[in-house]
Amino acid sequence: MTRDDLDRLAAEYVLGLLEGEERAEAERRLAEDRGFPAMVETWRRRFAELDETAPQLPPDEGLWRRIDAAIAGPAPRAAVQPVRAEPRLRLWDNLFFWRGLGLAGAFAALLLALGLAYTLSRTSRQPVMIAVLLNDSNQPGAVLSTYADGHAELVPLGDMTIPHNHSIQIWTFPDPKGAPVSVGVISVPRSTRLDMDKMPRLHSDQLFAISVEPLNGSPTGQPTGPVVMKGTASTAL
């Protein structure tokens, strides 16, 4: 995750917007990640500052009388006096009421903005195309997902291994009859973000392949080692 992703995760955790895997991820990072709790505390302080702007409104005397009456138990019917309703005009003329209403509106607008950003963030994380890369045994070895903002993510499946002092290099063929173009070099088999924003527009059935290369990638700009995985992209559901 980038720092922006972690900051968003911390803000949504404080607001209680997370659920499922994202909430579990936030709680895991709270327990294991030294920097994430500080992000959460920062967002808590920001929202606490917003809460502190609300004026404290003492309860009116009528409320205390009703509480005392409820504690004392029901009074004899003859002694019951109807509670005089406060005129509504006093509520509308109350400056504290309008301040509180304005604060509630500002806080609701903030939640709406954060919710919209959260929704847009979720939308931007939905892949546009997905390629399942198969190994020599015709078994899925990795999944490559491409996104609308121009980046891609490679997720290894199973026990992917990379030979010592070597790397794997991801290639794609924007032109089926042209030369392959490098997407990225990986030396550790883990989920990795790849940059594809400078490449031509992806199309369905576009071929992706992975080859074994020297530690820093192919010295020629073209695959030099064996191709260990390949697959074509299809539009994500």
Question: In words, what does this structure look like?
Answer:
With 237 residues, the protein is α+β, with helices and mostly antiparallel strands. The protein has helices at 3-15, 20-32, 36-52, 61-72, 88-92, 95-124, and strands spanning 129-134, 140-146, 151-156, 166-173, 181-186, 192-195, 207-214, 227-235. Helix 1 packs across helix 3 (36-52). The relative contact order is 0.10. Keywords: Membrane, Transmembrane, Transmembrane helix. This is Anti-sigma K factor RskA C-terminal domain-containing protein. One of its GO terms (biological process) is regulation of translation.
At a glance:
With 237 residues, the protein is an alpha+beta fold. 38% of the residues lie in helices and 23% in strands.
